[in-house]
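Q: Is it fine to ask for two folds in a single conversation?
A: Yes, each is treated on its own. Send the first.
Q: Here.
A: Result:
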Amino acid sequence: MYTVSYLFLKRRPLNWSQTTYGIFVGFYKLVTATALFTLVPLMKSRFNMHDSAIIILAIISTSVGELFFGLSTKSWMVFTCEYHAANHHQDRIEKRPNIALRMNQLNVLRVVN
């Protein structure tokens, strides 16, 4: 199954192979899992953040990460923006209207009207 991100990454200027994309997906999943099991409990217990504040941070972080992902011209930029986005939110809550969104954890394309 191809996602929008794979179709973006396999074209110029990045020209990624399926192997490189697989490494990227594995890296992304590892970073996301690490963030979920360390940062979210830390934000809730140590900094006493409410769920709504964590969700707002998730939306902002996801938006910034996806923007930089779309503007990436080098492979290190793609890995960096996904690392940044995954380390600053609870999960990939995507509620931005009128754009095609990549549901990373489900690997399906969803169009939000």
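Q: Second one now.
A: Result:
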Amino acid sequence: MSAATNNKQGNNGDLTPWGIFGYILLFSIPVIGWILMIVFACLHSHAGRRDLARGFCLFVLFWIIVAVIVKLTGIGGPVVDWLNSTM
């Protein structure tokens, strides 16, 4: 299969900026978006969508870990108090 034919079918992994924007909005929807993010991350049909979903999974996982660390160390309370006092 030639590169031109492959590009017309959209299987080369390229996403347009609007496609990326749409998928990020979709993945940001609670529960439904998260489920679709996991499904798209596991599929092998479209490399660009799969890579974006995997990257967004890592992004969400990173912030979940940060939130758990902040909660367990107890630094969340003093930070919130300091923010409230500066406003």
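Q: Anything structural to flag on that second result?
A: Two points. The chain has one domain: 15-86. Residues 27 and 34 are 6 Å apart (CA to CA).
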